[in-house]
Amino acid sequence: MNSGRIRRKLRNPIFFWSDELTEKFHGRVLEFFNRDCELQFFMTWISSVESFGRREILAVGSVFKSHPNGCLMILSRTMDSPQGYLVLKPLLDRGFKVRAVTPDLPFLLKNTRPKLGSITSRVVKGSGVIPLAQNLSNLMRLAVLYKYGGVYLDTDFIVVKSFKALKNTIGAQSVDSTSKNWTRLNNAVLVFDMNHPLLFKVVHRVEGRPGYNFTILPPMAFYPVDWIKIGKLFKMPKNQTDSKWIEAKLHQLNEKSYGVHLWNKQSSKLMIEEASVMGR
Fold first, then answer.
1. The whole model's pTM is what?
2. Is 63 part of a structural domain of the chain?
3. CB 175 within 8 A of CB 193
């Protein structure tokens, strides 16, 4: 499916606009990551700049807490603006390398494998369950990692440990209690080399096959708390049992996890209470 047909099908063609910013996309990416980056990270943001709030800043800041010499690019037209610059300025003033860049989706999709065409078609048609913006975010993260390689993170993922040792990695969200085999993967965290074929293949079809070298980490690596229980991380201890649970969870996160997915749909309205896991 060519970019013209995609534009006609999309309800909101802003994501496929071509202008001065999109035309400079590839050059801006190469220039930004040519800065002795410890690791190159990507996030996507399709919502308004006003909705990029404290939770998102917390996630961005966590990247640099574990990777002070890392580089983070936020693919976003709304954040690639004077107002977006002001949102990120406190991090820039501390010397961290973060930049919002308007993506050029037709360029990202150009000359990719045929599999991406079917993904694009599903994005345009919509799933009936997953919103268009989420589908576009899913598409962008695959395409940008395929083009440039690096680490993709959702904006509700809090990094707690360096990713430097990870290579071609995706995390399991759940495993079978008996077989211990994964039952669901999650793409909130993706770590892949440039041009890795897995990015456009169905994982269960290629796992273990030659040429598709990658690692599936257990839920504890990226999803140590299930979305149903995520609220417990925000609650202050009410008794000694709660305090012991918080201490045990902090120890577990520090020892076994690279970060915590906060499941924003469930936790976005929760306040971080004093002495909670998140408050610590």
1. 0.85
2. yes
3. no
